[in-house]
Amino acid sequence: MTDLVGGALDRLAADLPSDQRGRFLELMRTGLAEFDAVVGPEDQVVEIEAAADVPPGERLAAAERFAAKRRAFTLGRRSGELLTAFAEGRDVAADAERLLAEIETALAEMRDDGIRRELGDYATECRYVLSGGTGPNSPRGSKLA
Amino acid sequence: MAVTAAVSRRLPTTTRRVSRRRPSRTAGPTGLLWLQRTAGNAATSRLMTQRTIVDDLGRVLAGGAAALKKALSPPLKAGDTGPSVLSLQQSLNRVGAALIEDSIFGTRTKAAVAAFQRDHGVRPARGAGTVDEATWDALRLGGRATASAVPGQGSTESWAAMPAQRRADFRTLGYTAATWRSKTPPLAGLLPYALLSEKQRAAATRLGYTRESWRANRDTTAGTAAKGFAAEEAAAKRKAGARVLPAKYVGSLRAKAMIAAEFGADVDIQLAKVHLLTEAEMKKAYEGYYGAGSYTPINGFTVKPDIYLNNSSIWAGTTVHESLHVQEHGTWDAFAYQPTSAFGEGATTILTELVMTRHEQPVTHHPYAAEVALVRKMNTHAGLDKMRAAYFQGATGDYRTGVTGGLKPGTTWAQFRALVDAGALAAAQARLK
């Protein structure tokens, strides 16, 4: 079976300076690994090829953003699941503490304001759970909880 | 006549008494000397001031309604003082400015004038913050300068070809062939319904006005519900004073109406509770809320069902924008499942522009370049606009029909939604026609 994803990544990496290729592939694979199974290889190729419009000189930075966004997305989904569980009355305080620590680590590592804002939302959601439902919540969290 | 009587009632008692006793030969210096001896310098000075006003009013009344309207609309600028400035401040307070009514055109009054002009599309020749006739007209409409008081506005019929009775009715209310589509109403349009003559009321009724629609300036032809709420908002703001305003009236009533006019068939529009914050409060609240680094303060953000607006830069579009977020996260299923804040911001920005363009004013008036830049920065997904089009194709109908109609063969709604939910936006976009 042809490796559609690998082929697409190689095509994009081919335009890059040799010292960037390895890092580019690593970042893209890290980001792609965050996808659900629902996003199959063909859909992943579409996601990868969205980067084809990015000039080669900016492609490594785009890959960093892609990986960061995928990471933030996963943290956001976990935070959403946490809120749902909390709304169902389950004791998820320990989970909330763990997730909050992960989110704060990500916040410390990320520089993109948009992604940091999203992460801030998720941190707020965790703190909402830890407050027992009395603290402020994010817009999404207000709906879920 | 009503104006003269009003001025007379404001005259100091002493001055009026002296005025009645004044000999007929008082036009020259002899009369003034007699007044000074009888009533003193201060009362004479007051009388001369008031007499000037009355004389001016006499002239303009002789000149007709147009001149009266002009006299009641004096050009004003920062530094001016006196009764006209007091009237200006009272008018601004009626639309929620919360100024101290001290008859002095200071910086706060200028700022209130500029904000009002910005919100209502008034552009005086001498620059924002100066008062011209158009500003007075807009203020007399209770801040409804952008709303039509004219049944003819937007009409495609011609003055010459319309039925004679309709043409006569427009004339009865003071309109002409040149002005019947104008936003600025003639004198009759400025009068309370109770003061209309029987003939004017009959004409107004035939043109489609009711007592209520005349009062609230509801446009019977455009059907945009937003226009009807201005008076209610203004009254609530006046009653509340200062910046502690009843939350639901800080623009959100109009925002709700505008959003409902656009999307009301799809969703039960939720009214936002609005908080006004200062710049400093905004920054503190913003950072406290997000707890993530330092961001440039934005104009507003949402926490269901509340929205927080920066009182130093509030604009109707911001209220609409944040109110859309409330729908997004509250009752609106269309993109409530959006995977990222960026998508929500981008979609909400687009919808704000749509709503403002259709129901308020062109978005070229949007004064928040910084906010737009921030949203654009966040919104890095190239396919957002296409997805928005898919979500809201035929927005007043069923958005899901629009989406389904926009999918490529072989893709189901569930698949599309699963991809969006997974954050694979490019892949989801690729499933659209």
UniProtKB/TrEMBL annotation, chain A:
- Highest taxon of the source? Bacteria
What name does the UniProt record give this protein? Uncharacterized protein
Automatic annotation (TrEMBL), chain B:
Q: Pfam families of this UniProt entry?
A: PG_binding_1
Low complexity: compositionally biased ranges: 7-16
UniProt-listed InterPro entries: Peptidoglycan-bd-like, PGBD-like_sf, PGBDSf
Check the record and name the SUPFAM superfamilies matching this protein.
PGBD-like
Sequence ranges assigned to domain Peptidoglycan binding-like in this UniProt record: 81-139
Q: Return the annotated region ranges for Disordered.
A: 1-29
Q: Signal peptide location in the record?
A: none
Protein's recorded name: Putative peptidoglycan binding domain-containing protein
* Species whose genome carries this gene: Geodermatophilus ruber
